[in-house]
Amino acid sequence: MNNELRMKHTIFLVSAASLCLSCSSNLTPPAPYGAVPTVAQLEWQKMEYYMFVHFGPNTFTDVEWGDGRESPTVFNPTNLDCRQWVQTAQQAGMKGIIITAKHHDGFCLWPSAYSTHTVRESLWKDGKGDVLRELAAACHQGGLKFGVYLSPWDRNHPTYGTPEYNQVFVGMLNEVLSGYGDIFEQWFDGANGEGENGKKQVYDWPLFNQTVYNHQPQAVIFSDVGPDCRWIGNEAGSAGESNWSRLHIKGFGPGHAAPPSDTLNAGNVFGKAWVPGEADVSIRPGWFYSAATDDKVKSVQELMDIYYTSVGRNSNLLLNVPPNRVGRIHPADSARLVEFRAARESLFANNLVKAATVTASAVRANAPQYAAANVQDDDFDTYWTVNNATTQASIEVQFAEGQAFNRLLLQEYIPLGQRVAKFNVEVWDNTAGAWKLLTEATTIGYKRILCFPTITAERIRINILHSLACPLLSTVSAYKASE
Ligand code: FUL
Questions:
Q1: How far is the CA of 125 from the centre of ligand 1 (A)?
Q2: How far is the CA of 2 from the centre of ligand 1 (A)?
């Protein structure tokens, strides 16, 4: 071999080797990008929609924030029926219930040994009742997950505002987290007011969180900044148009130490921790039941809008449904929840993409396991993706004939991280013989639902314009909602 030939030969061998290398590295699944969900966070995200229950002395005194001086005897539901709450949640299509075990008034819905402001001091069941016991049993029997809200802020406890209170609060957590079976979510309210003595409590958050994990390692902990899921920054059920599940948490804490609400609303694109959003909102104007709001239960349209701006924007929806003084959910709320479920089911009944042909501008290593058709099945774990170096790509849906639709639902395969930062949707305009822009958006995350006026088209193209690493789409579906 002369020198020139030897050189050519070497170049050929090197490029063939690197081609093979890129083939094989693309045949394996993409490496995770950034922070990723834990198994518990992923399970939690898939729950999507569950019930918040505000219940306690405030239900009987018609206030939103009891001051802790109310007599425990005011708490006296005449016919408490937690099974009715569970049935309502089931009929609503919800996956769990989180109850205010202790709100700011300090009243414990279980007979805590750490307080004298509890169900034990009430007249209900002669002081022998335990709301947590009844609800946990009803949830577990009905196949719903059970979660607890505990307000660290306690307007009743005499030790509030002293270091001793942190031990009291841990004692209460120990009781709640060890006595009622599996807890899927521990909800820590960030509100932190003054104590009787005018002192502010310095909470021992690391100790509180550790206490939760000691008893319930699989639980997700909610607070303004997680560690497992975060407040969405408002109580209107509205996540940001851009909503990253990553968040910068270093240097931040719950309550006064939380990042600004607009940051919580949108997350941080390069946040170091996986802390997905949860949108909490009440079906009525207040969090607690009041007869004065019986005619102010949110309409199906309002609930649908909330659904689109929460679940439809990569956030879970925690919808508050407060029981009344009987201890039951009022028919106005339960009827509305059933109507809301029917509206969702009819909307999502016919996924037009199922019968379509789906192709992509590129497929990872041209391998069938990453094919575009993976977005059509109902299996979250199969996805379409492209080679590592590809951060812009398109996926096209071709119908057999023109289809009218006005909703598009997309899912990213988040176990490998949230990636898509900008995309648009085009439809093929037969008359013009060209693609026409329909809508554009930024993030997708676990679920993104796009709403737009009804359009009829034979082809839809989703262009991923900017992805932080190669995009992975688990689902693309299209629907026609009745206007
Ligand atoms: C807030 C509380 O002050 C409200 O009463 C309610 O519990 C809401 C869910 O969280 O911080």
A1: 28
A2: 81
